[in-house]
Amino acid sequence: MSDATAVAAAASGRDPATGLSAVRALRVLQESLEELQVTRARDQGWSWQQIADALGVSRQAVHKKYRRLGL
Fold first, then answer.
1. Which Pfam families match (predicted)?
2. Lower CB count within 10 Å: N or C terminus of the chain?
């Protein structure tokens, strides 16, 4: 948790190079966590609509993004 906290702090820092690098790292982390949770939800029988509602996006958007996983 402290690594994520440090990256989040760096993202709001005054140095743009450090801040933008931290933003990129957070984006990669977010995408990884989202994919993990979508996979878990599908494994537990969640519909694409339930996942979309939880993420605040359309069913079509979440299905398009994750259909490559064969879920």
1. HTH_23 (PF13384)
2. N
Domain count, the chain: 1
2 pLDDT band (50/70/90 cuts)? low
Domain that holds residue 56: 2-69
Q: Pull the structure tokens for residue 32.
A: 């990884």
C-alpha radius of gyration, the chain, whole number: 15
